[in-house]
Amino acid sequence: MPRFDAVLFDLDGVLADTAHIHFAAWRRLGEELGIHLEPAFEEKLKGVDRMGSLDLILAQGGVQRTAEEKRVLADRKNGYYTAAIAEQTPDDLLPGARRVLEEVRAAGLKVALASASRNAPPLLRQLGIAPLIDAIADPAAVKAPKPAPDLFLEAARLVGAVPERCLGIEDSVAGIISIKDAGMVAVGIGDPTVLTRADYVVPTTEQFHIGDFL
Ligand code: BG6
Ligand code: MG
């Protein structure tokens, strides 16, 4: 019997080549606020939701803003981001992303999305992979964002899988913590010295094969 009933995917940096686009949009906003973000700051923002990311950036710059000002700034960043992804097509998928989804489905496992991004549903349609995904966990519908386990638990619930029989795939430190605290098996996409809590790490999505985990 296979070890898993479902695979729960993060989107940005796992299926979509958009992690660097989020960071570019934050850097642009940061410059406008006089806050310079070093490249290493990207790791701290990965997987962190929009308002949480803005809070980290403002704290980094020692800058205070009211709740209303923060809403305007977060909207501005989202405008930069959505403009940058507006022309994305299936050619912009990360290498191997479509093949991985197809292999997981062919193995008889459910596929769910556990992305912090409110932009996920339209992006999935643009990338042509929406029909390969059984359920999308809505980040607005859970209590706490990553690194809390809520979003991965919601994704598992939507496809009727128990956490112990779910494999979560993530490129972020925050996301790997969510998966582990949800009681699931975590595969990191990236660097094992960064994604230290992952059970397994593969360098890129292209090197992930579900057959290695069944
Ligand atoms: C995550 C990204 O997938 O989504 C973060 O890793 C981003 O960088 C978060 O902040 C929220 O995205 P959005 O599209 O709702 O602003
Ligand atoms: Mg990610």
UniProtKB/TrEMBL annotation:
The keyword Phosphoprotein is assigned to this record: yes
Keywords assigned by UniProt, alphabetized: Carbohydrate metabolism, Isomerase, Magnesium, Metal-binding, Phosphoprotein
Origin organism lineage: Bacteria, Pseudomonadati, Pseudomonadota, Alphaproteobacteria, Rhodospirillales
Catalytic residues as annotated in Swiss-Prot or TrEMBL: 10, 12
Molecular function terms from GO: beta-phosphoglucomutase activity; magnesium ion binding
EC id: 5.4.2.6
Cofactors: Mg(2+)
Site (Important for catalytic activity and assists the phosphoryl transfer reaction to Asp8 by balancing charge and orienting the reacting groups): 115, 146
Gene3D superfamilies (alphabetical): HAD superfamily/HAD-like (3.40.50.1000), Putative phosphatase, domain 2 (1.10.150.240)
InterPro entries associated with the record: B-phosphoglucomutase_hydrolase, Beta-PGM, Beta-PGM-like, HAD-like_sf, HAD-SF_hydro_IA, HAD_sf, PGP-like_dom2
Residues reported in the UniProt entry to bind substrate: 10-12, 26, 45-50, 53, 77, 115-119, 146
Homology family: Belongs to the HAD-like hydrolase superfamily. CbbY/CbbZ/Gph/YieH family.
SUPFAM superfamilies, alphabetized: HAD-like
Protein name: Beta-phosphoglucomutase
Biological processes per GO annotation: carbohydrate metabolic process
Catalytic reaction(s) noted: beta-D-glucose 1-phosphate = beta-D-glucose 6-phosphate
Note accompanying the cofactor annotation: Binds 2 magnesium ions per subunit.
CDD domains referenced in this protein's UniProt entry, alphabetically: HAD_BPGM
Annotated organism of origin: Nitrospirillum amazonense
Residues that coordinate or bind Mg(2+): 10, 12, 170-171
